[in-house]
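Working notes for the structural subgroup meeting. M.R. asked for a predicted model of this chain before we commit to crystallization trials. I am recording the input and output together here so anyone reviewing the notebook later can reproduce the run.

Input as submitted:
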Amino acid sequence: MKRQLHSCALAALTLLSTLPAGAQHAEPVPSEQRVTVQGMKNASAWFKAESQHFVVYSDTSRASVFQLLNNLERLDYLLRLYTSAYGKPQPLESKLTLTFHKRPGALAQFADTPPRDAVGLYSSCSAGVQGAGVLLAPITELANAELSKAPVND
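Returned structure, recorded in token form:
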């Protein structure tokens, strides 16, 4: 009994007399957001990105989707400037949903016979608006001054 008491006292004294450890906290590593479908072994490469007016589901790179959303928002802003005199802004506008693919043949799942050389399709109905597009080449960033002069796609 005395031996157990001495052991406990020694352990308590050791714990109290030690200096606090200076452990360094590692920054949390952001995990890649992946979708896993029940019944499938591998995670999907698809991810979701949103901006003020658009929702994009894509299997391309995050940089491509960022650039796409940036260009779409700029186009949306410009179109709203030109059409503001003709239409009244809607208080609750739904976001346009876009499926952005890395495979050129992916548009076939949205239309039985997609137009030749099509890079995107668009559909609108009372339930909402949806679009599908294909990444053929890296999306280039253009400064505002270049928009009227630079050909984006020849």
